[in-house]
Amino acid sequence: MQPKLTLLTNDLIERILDEAHQLLLKPGVKVNNREARELLTSAGAQVDAETNVVHIPTQIVHKTTASVPNEFYLYNSDGNPAVKYGGDTVHFDPGSSGIAMLNPETLEHETTETSHLLKLIKVAEQLPQYDAQSTAVICHDVPQQIQDSYRLYLALLYSKKPIVTGAFTNKTVNEMIEMLAILAGGRDAAREKPRAIFDVCPAPPLIWSDFASGNLIALARAGIPAEIVSVPLAGAAAPVTLLGAVTQHTAECLAGIAIHQLAQAGSPIVWGGAAAIFDMKKGATPMGAVETAMLDCSYAQVAKTLNIPTHTYLGATDSKLVDAQAGLESGITAMIGALSGINMISGSGMLDFLSCHSAEKLVIDAEGIAMAKRMIAGVQLHTETLATGFYDDNINFKGGDFLKQKITMQLFRKEQHLPSNVIDRDSMHNWKQAGSLDAFARAKAIVNELLASYSRPQLDETAEQALHAFMLTLARNAGMNALPALEDTAIANTIG
Amino acid sequence: MSEELYERMAQSIIEGEKEIAVELATKAIELNIHPLDAIAKGFVVGVNYIGDQFGKGEAFLPELVMAGEAMKAAVGVLEPELLKLGEARETLGRVVLATVEGDIHEIGKTLVGTMLSASGFEVTDLGVDQPAEKIIGKAIEIDAQIIGMSALLTTTMIRQREVIEELDKEGLRPRIKVMVGGAPITKSWAEKINADGTAEDAMGAVQLAKKLVGKE
Fold this sequence. Notes:
- The structure holds 2 protein chains of 2 kinds.
- The longest helix of chain A has 22 residues, at 242-263.
- By secondary structure, chain A is α/β, with parallel strands linked by helices.
- In chain A, 43% of the residues lie in helices and 13% in strands.
- In chain A, helix 11 (324-339) links the parallel strand 17 and strand 18.
- In chain B, helix 5 (107-118) crosses helix 9.
- Chain B has 9 helices and 5 strands; from the N terminus they run H-H-H-H-E-H-E-H-E-H-E-H-E-H.
- Chain B is an alpha/beta fold.
- A 5-stranded parallel sheet of chain B has the order 2-1-3-4-5, sandwiched between helices.
- The chains are: A alpha/beta, B alpha/beta.
- Chains A and B meet through helix 13 and helix 14 of A and helix 4 and helix 5 of B.
């Protein structure tokens, strides 16, 4: 039995949905994209031509939520399903779109470039706790116009896992879809077995920007999964109450789904977010706060009532270092996310309000994720009798009796998560002998091991060349003569 | 032919398959393979491998213990044959193990016993709550080279010192070496009570015991 955390009664969920429907009518939603407004008005919504505020009738909402697929998969580079969106399945991926990365030696937050993203991808690739990669940080060594497509290009070259990504403009979303099609062998193949999912963010309160709406429409028509990342900030950009913020989140998601499903009914879309409370002392948006996790658990419950797949941002910290605060905030919120049965939980590895990444933190967070996954695997029945079968004639009433049983050897790996060396369970003596290292120092050592053991996956040569040629063209159009040099590849990075 | 059998013997230990180990030991006797060869070229190779893996953190306690148990079972089949041949397995040494008086925690000590005997020591395990005179009496009786004592509690670890003082008084040291172990036991405690050494885990205890009998 998968243990579940629920915070809302059915009655409250109904009230949330009812008030969200009311919000969509009044005040309505600001939709700053012409095509999205046309889709909504053709379906019967009223639009204020001056303010772009659309008033969406409840029957449109009912119709469009009903056409959302209840489940779908993301595929790895071998074409096998690797991530299931739907039901109470739980997956984790590193947080996305950081702009800095912690240098483990100087402890500076460095502006991220190609080398930083590759380091994160290589580490996450080898940690089985991460079911998907993310385009984790922005590479500032390429021009802004290609920063989104370039991240996806690197993830496709260096990983076999599904990828959580996102586009920054309405132009680049199509370029990125094309990149997926190149590797998949066409747009139909890319839709058939989607490799990546695209985060799309409404702006609080109740705004669907030109670019976010445009992304929803492009993704819907391409049949590439979209993930709504609604970010109500309770107390600033959303009502201060958790229930009020969840209701706004619901309205933003319902409006996004309406635009998306009106563009192409049946296209896969996810009910997600990066909700947070607003810190009234520092004016910050704490990702490690327990109320942030409570918002996420609550909105996931609303989505589950509608049978729509779920996503959230948890497992991150607001600390600037990989320290005790990082451990407790990341571990506790990852556990809450898992217990909430959320399909994709993004955020691991991240510090400082989702702005800074750390490979060392990815290694430590992987253990928190393993604990969370072990927790939701639940207490299992492995044997016919619970205990009596263990007490055979060889029992000597000694402490070590059970270590000598074959069944112990057979089952201990199923019952116990065996942590990596980042978790210290040594004796005092051995711990001292190993250098009296703390978790961060142990994580540094593991990162180095993972970087040394990494090897780039083999891609189809023709497809890889085509992908590369496509990226080079984008780079040239953005004014570059060469892409940053890549280790581990024989690809020529200059324009021929 | 026998090379392949040796490999299967080692494998049976690595996999902790007691029944298969016994089967292979019996087969070795049928094939007139010298029992000492079966042990040294077959089974011991498996014990060494799993010990190594455990040291590297790649094998776990249940695997280590099952390997030790399988080894014990295989040797149990082969030893009577050795006696028939008028030979005996050259043991690395005789060890008396006990948990000291007032203490009943012995998981670690039992593990040490399993691994010592799997590694070729002759082990007499007295069990828990053993007073000094019983431990020393048994050591004299079997002419042991090593006494190994465990204690889990800080209140009972002082008993280890009593045994050592008693041995010194009777002039039994350095003929009998003393190793101490248990959760609260540190290197400095071992030095303080004038023991001959301590180790962190069962594999460490095997290394220490080999060192103490000069058979590293």
